[in-house]
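Appendix B. Extra example for self-study. Work through it before the problem class; the solution is given directly after the inputs so you can check yourself.
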Amino acid sequence: MSAVGISNVAKYYGKVAALDDVSMTVQDGEFFGLLGPSGGGKTTLLRAIAGFVEPDRGEITIAGKAVSNIPINKRDIGMMFQNYALFPHLTVAENIGFGLSVRHRPKAEIAERVRQLLELVRLSGFEGRKPKQMSGGQQQRIALARALSTNPKVLLLDEPLGALDKKLREEMQFELKQIQRDVGITTVFVTHDQEEALTLSDRIAIMNGGRVEQIGAPRDIYERPRTAFAASFLGTANFFEGVVSGRGDGVTRIELPDGQAIFTTDEAPAGARVTAAVRPEKLLAGPVGAQGQEGRTNTIQGRVMAEVFAGNSVTYKVDAGNKPVTVFVQNRTDERFGPDQTIALTWAPYHTILVAA
Amino acid sequence: MTSSARRLRAIIGLSGPTALWLTVTVVLPLAAMLVFSFLTVVPVGGREAAFTLKHYTDFFTRPLYLTNAWRSVRLGLEVTFFCALIGYPAAYILAKAIKGRWREALLLLIVLPFWSNSLVRTFSWTMVLSDNGLLARTIHGILPFAPSFDLLYTYPAIVIGLVQSYLPYMILTCYISLQAIEDSLTEAAYSLGASRFDVFRRVILPLSLPGLIAGSVLTFVPVLGAFMEPRILGGQQAIMLGTLIENQFTASFNWPLGAALGFIMLAIVLLIMGLFYPVLKKHISVN
Amino acid sequence: MNKASSALSGLYLLLILFFLYIPIIVMMIMSFNRSELYLLPFEFDLVWYQQLAQNDQLIGAARNSIVIALVNTVIATTLGTLTALCFARYEFRGKRVLQGMLVPTLTMPWLITGTAMLMFFFWSGIGRGLHSILLGHVALSLPYVVIIVGARLRSLGVSMEEAAATLGANGWQTFWRVTAPLMAPGIVAAALFAFAISFDQFVISYFLAPVGTSTLPVQIYSAIRKGFTPEINAISTIIILASMVLMIGFARFSKFGGER
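Solution. Structure tokens for the complete assembly:
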């Protein structure tokens, strides 16, 4: 059974579509990431699931039940807000116990549940503090504990780690994933940070302009992006535009405007204009002439324009026929390429991915 | 009940009483004032009122009114000028040279008199300014042969009293806009080679101008309508547009004339407010 | 900033404080001086406070002022808070009109507001009296309540209420457990301000007061105009201390001067 179902949901602000016919299914226990640029619709979708935004069209289900007529407070959700929205006038324990308290649960039960949750987020002993007396990371964990307090059917996280600094964010990513797995709660979260999406999510939906660009496991989206936007938003990509000029030997030949040709294992009809994406780390850089298996391997030549040293790798910007190409080279040998040196870039045809422009 | 009906009921429930209250105490009185200013008498107790423009034409033809209206405007300008002259540097010192708890305490000390009873404060000046008041005695203590010294019941006394009344407000509005100027802006100007004077003239003054203007308008307008301060401190010098209007309601009982004079004053106020509306909008925003 | 200019700055502020406070301090001292003509040397005496205690007119006026200020505080704070909530929650036609209705009493000279009320109340039969003074005071203090409570609401934002809803709280629970306690400091600040506005208000009361009864400021004004007695110093000292205490309270609750 799907924990959260979104079918054909649309939301307009005036003429602008914040959500444009969005459909997706979140599985039970899944950690599901909504990734996209600001204005992409991801926050609107999260707020529609919570009930703060009423869709103009389409249906949202939580645990198989349509929720359009269920008010926010009856939806049985847990939500963590970007700025945490901890109640400043209540103690940590009162914040975490709020959801149970408004459900008129007995005091002893609330106290016990608060104790459990504080243990879960490793903040036992802080019951009596006010949120303002806690650090950013601690506030984040209190907000998480509060969102989990009522055993909701789905946990919604709005930029959960956005307010933390880089180091703390990396620590919390790990911890958040651990807690989510231990509790086993279906979780939908919004982020604009691709690294966060990759590390946390079981599956990711990439959203842009109110539409879903692609849904899939992080690795699948990274290796087989379906659109140019997905390829460039999640990771970096080089794009080649050309015309399909034939197929044979299990590969499709694409002719580039400058006369060079590249090959892909993807299929496309002859004569079609296509866009191909290649990840910079899939390219192998070397001196011209050292390459062997013509026909099965892609080889293009280019002139080194810039070199950026990043410790474990070196990034080269290469001009390949008036087209800038980015290459990541692992810092494994002493081999370096000087400015203006012409080098050859090679890669396997299955690393050339045809994407929708 | 549908959600839009519930919404409407909530809106009416929440803001209806306020709307009603303000209709009775502000909207209708101002409308009545406008109407009465065109009538010969106030239509109560069966008195017949006729339409007339006399009160307005009187204002523009009889020197008594024009002269006193100008005296009020001049008083407003002078008080505003002194408030700005004294207040702006004080606000600058508070915003830029004093930090932490001291700043908060000083600001509160400065604003406290503004928030306390203005009548009593005005009255307290009589003890300082009269011929055997504190000021005269201090001066005679230092210069025993100084001429007799009686500021009370003079025009300067009115100005002094009003400057004291509105100075805190000027300091506060200037302080708010000065304090919002981040230090990084002035630092950036210095780093680009600007002198202290350049920084002040080209960065700080333009950025704090809205506060200075707002403070000036919000000082000028109430001073224009002042009547109690001139009466207590000004003696024979007290006659102004404000006191003339007061007179129509408390002594000569020519209400339509008072209403017309009131509307002329309001016209001056609206003109000034309209002129500076973009700047004022922020300072009197009720949303 | 170097030492000399910082000393100069300090001196300047000191002079300003001197200018602002000297008349008030002189008045306070004179209220304890025995001499009726403010003659020195200073001789401490409570004679003017004793006389004040027997001045039924001033005491009656003071009682009127306090009662009106209290009722005004309750009404203005309630109406103003509801309006601020309405402004914060809803966009509706007429919102701008209502906001516009709040502006005149803030920006027009009170002389105009007061005389306009006088004419309309007289013509419509509402008449003069303590009730019409109350009507006017509420109109004056309402806008301040809306501004003060509104600022508090805006600084809180909506996320706290949204969080309460996701945790299962219904509208009432959210209001009483989250919104109201968070608004409370703003409401207290607004109430103190409303009280002070009414208690110190002279102009409106002056025009609306009927013959015979009046509020304290009106009574003081007529005493001053008639040629006052040092009792006025005594009552003025009490008033000024009371309104300063009120305003220090207001500053505390409204976090005047900003948070650091």
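Self-check: Chain B has one domain: 63-283. If your reasoning did not lead you there, revisit section 3.
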